[in-house]
UniProtKB/TrEMBL annotation:
A GO term, aspect molecular function: protein-folding chaperone binding
Keywords: Chaperone
Chaperone is among the record's keywords: yes
Annotated organism of origin: Aegilops tauschii subsp. strangulata
Xref: Pfam families: Cpn10
Name recorded for this polypeptide: 20 kDa chaperonin, chloroplastic
NCBIfam families, per database record: PRK00364.2-2
Amino acid sequence: MAAHEPIVQAKQYTSVKPLGDRVLVKTKTTEDKTAGGILLPTTAQSRPQAGEVVAVGEGRSLGSNVVEISVPVGAKVIYSKYAGTELEFNDTTHLIMKEDDIIGILDTDDVKDLKPLSDRILIKVAESEEETAGGLLLTQASKEKPSVGTVVAVGPGPLGDDGSRTPLSITPGSSVLYSKYAGSEFKGSEGEYIVLRSSDVIAVLSS
């Protein structure tokens, strides 16, 4: 995956108006401490993937229809790790990105409350197996990354050519198998979660 674009300096400007289906997001400040309170060096800080929408474009053109941006100004959002172009103005770092780069709306600090957008799905990842098939206990580092989980929430569905959305066939509560290296991973208060496209779900599981 390509590295993120360098920051564009626009300190002489006081406002930015996104065009088309783009949105302007004020990025959340990178945390400088671990959960245990340990200060992190700059090189160890992870790039934030959260922020607040401060401006939106006029929407996307689909044939003769214009579909307005579905994310309102003021919404707290989570976005793809390498989304958009960084823009520095008003002494604050912003990102200007496509609406489709926004993974979901998050009104709290816990990813389990995420409201996915478009055709994205929020899944609570199943815990790794503690033993191999032969009964050998696994260390944390050697545990196989699971690709099974439970659907927590689903987006409204992808946009069609006429501007309407097609609801997803996958529903909350379903157990699913998904592509091993798909999506964006997050840690929540109740475990690990992943957000991915519905096309990355391989099968629905039942007992």
